[in-house]
Specification:
The chain is mainly α. The chain has 10 helices and no strands. Helix 1 packs across helix 7 and helix 7 runs antiparallel to helix 8. The chain is elongated, with a radius of gyration of 21 Å.
């Protein structure tokens, strides 16, 4: 069984998501108009890598000013704010700019980035719930907060999103509450967090 110490940190970024982040940023450098295709899907905080967050935020600022989004313009803008060196210098910006040879897949890649952000938020919610189980809050209250947080993450997006999140969560919580009242152990898929499994009886269908 994977222990808490062996489990990746919530803010760690899987290689596939980091590659998608670089692809999105590279695509915008390649074709500035591509920013309009992903701006409704992503904020700077959607990116897991801090440097990617800064690059995307800079892209948004340049776009708002009507300036071209290219490595030289971005480097000049970041240097004026004293952020260029911390980002990795001009070489890093040129590296990101060369991360994509096409914008054909920029929307699917942006959705991967957005999903990665939701997964990190979900991991943080789970970690916070595990910590809260050691407190004095009643189990039904913890379950309610967990469901509300999860439902917020299940908001539909243009790619189809999650259908029937409210109904699905309500059904799952009824099963979880029933298991709790019966004193059942894990009835769903184990989360890997012993305290959270004790609270939710594992991941439930729906």
């Amino acid at each position: 069984m994977v222990t808490m110490q062996e489990r990746p940190k919530p803010n760690s970024i899987p290689p596939s998501i980091e590659t998608a982040e670089r692809s999105v940023l590279g695509g915008i450098f390649l074709d500035n108009a591509a920013l309009e295709q992903v701006a409704h899907l992503l904020t700077a905080e959607s990116f897991g890598a801090e440097r990617h967050q800064r690059v995307y935020a800079s892209m948004l600022k340049l776009s708002e000013r009507g300036d071209p989004i290219d490595p030289i313009t971005m480097a000049s803008s970041l240097a004026s704010m004293g952020e260029l060196r911390a980002l990795g210098g001009v070489d890093y910006i040129f590296t990101i700019a060369g991360s994509s040879a096409s914008t054909a897949q920029i929307v699917p890649h942006a959705k991967i980035v957005a999903d990665g952000a939701r997964r990190r938020q979900l991991a943080e919610i789970c970690e916070a719930t595990v910590q809260a189980t050691g407190g004095r809050d009643a189990t039904p209250d913890l379950l309610l907060r967990l469901s509300e947080s999860a439902e917020a993450l299940a908001a539909p997006d243009e790619g189809g999103g999650v259908v029937g999140a409210r109904a699905g969560l309500a059904s799952a919580l009824m099963r979880i509450q029933g298991a709790y009242e019966r004193g059942s152990a894990v009835t769903g898929i184990p989360t890997g967090f012993e305290a959270l499994d004790g609270l939710t009886a594992g991941f439930q269908p729906g």
